[in-house]
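Allow me, if you will, to draw on your knowledge of protein folds for a short while. I have a record of one protein: its chain in single-letter code and its fold written as discrete structure tokens. Kindly check, if you would, that the fold set down in the tokens agrees with what the sequence suggests. Thank you for your consideration; the sequence and its tokens are set out here:
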Amino acid sequence: MRDALTRAGIVRAAAWQAHPHLTRRILLLLPTTRGIAIVSAVLLKLIVNAVLADDQGQAVLWGVLLATLQGISLAARRVQHRASMASTEDLRQHFDRELVALTAGMPGIRHYEERAFLDDLETIRSQPQVLGNAFITLAALVSAVAEALLVIAILMTIHPLLGLLPVIAVPLVYARSRAHA
């Protein structure tokens, strides 16, 4: 776990160094777009409740809010997608520059004669998108955790004990994944 967190920190630091503005934009927009989807589900529930209660004013109010949120979500996803693509390219270039600097800075040429070194170098050079997309994956993970916390908060508004459902499900999901492995 500690090793994974260290690697995640390295990827985040590289993304920040390659392009801090895009990194900040992605970290803000990804959880926002995912959170809007959950809020939209709550708004749909409120619309249905208002229609069933024959309260047109509330139904229209929630409907307008839902439409506004969907417009914001569409715009945010578009900006987030463009930022993700630009960030991936910037990260690829950053890692390429770092790779050139590291290999050029090594004394001697012996490392160029080692097959394992050349294989690793070729893997990094031939698949730069893997390194470039690492930050997007990390940002999506942070967003998914935020989304899970939002779902737990919504469940707890219905009844406090419902907040325990995801916590109870974690050991079951883990056991099932271990059984299939």
